[in-house]
Design a protein that fits this description.
Strand 8 and strand 9 form a beta hairpin. This protein has a six-stranded antiparallel β-sheet. It has a two-stranded antiparallel sheet with strand order 1-2. Strands 3-10 form a two-stranded parallel sheet. The chain has eight helices and ten strands. The longest helix has 14 residues. The chain has 246 residues and is of the alpha+beta class.
Amino acid sequence: MAARHEEIADELRRAIGREEYAVGARLPAETDLATRYGVSRGTVRQAVAALTAEGLIGSRQGARRVVLASRRSQSFAELRSFAQWARAMGREASGKVVAQEYLPATAEDTVHLQLPHGTPVLHVLRLRGLDGEPVLLERTVYADWISPAVESIEPDCPSVTQRLLDDTGLVFAYGEHVIDAVAAGARDAELLGVRRTSPLLRVRRVTTTREGRPVEWSDDRYRPDAVSFSVHNSIGNNALARKTAE
C-alpha cells in the first residue's frame, strides 16, 4: 500500500495533467493542502518534494510552489532517458525496434562518435510510445565498443539505457541537444500515425560517458501534440543556447 504522501503526490500529478494547475500557476499553500487532504504539513512537504524532484514544480524558500511543466513536458535540467522520464511522470513507456543494421561510419558518424571513418557502427530505428500511443522515432547510431551490447537487447525493451546500466554498468552522463522542426516523410508519417509533411519536433543529441567518451548520437523525431520540452534557467545559470537554423 502506498504511503500517504505518495498518494497525495499522485493526486497532484493528475491535477497538473488535467491542467487544474496550469504551467505558471501557483499550488495552494501547504496549510491549505494539509487541510484538504487531512494530513500534516510534513506529509504535504514530502509530496511536494517528489514533484519538485521530477521537475513538475519549482521550489523557492518562503514562496508558494509554481507549476513548471505539464506531465508531457520533458526538462533538459537533467539527463534522463525517454523511459526514465515517462516513469517519473507516471506514464508507461514502450519501445520497438523497426530496423537494425551495421553500417560503415560516415563522416557525420566519425565527428559525433570520434571513430575512424568506415568503422562498423550499429544503426537502430526505434519507435517509442507513451501508454501505447506512438510518439517518437529514434534513429540512433551506437559506437562500435557498445554496439554488441545494444544488439543483444530484445527488440521490445522499454529502456535501453536501463538495460545497458544493468548489463554493462554504462552510465549516460552528458548530453548535447539541438532542437528544430522537420516535416514528416512517408515512413515517419506511417510509423507515427500522422499525415505526410506534418511538422515533427526533432532533437539531435550526442550522449557520452562521465569520461566524455561518445556512446551514441541520435536523430529523435517527436509528434508535436505528444511531447513538449522545457528549459529552466536563471541569471546565474542558462542551460539554453540560441542558434540560427542550419
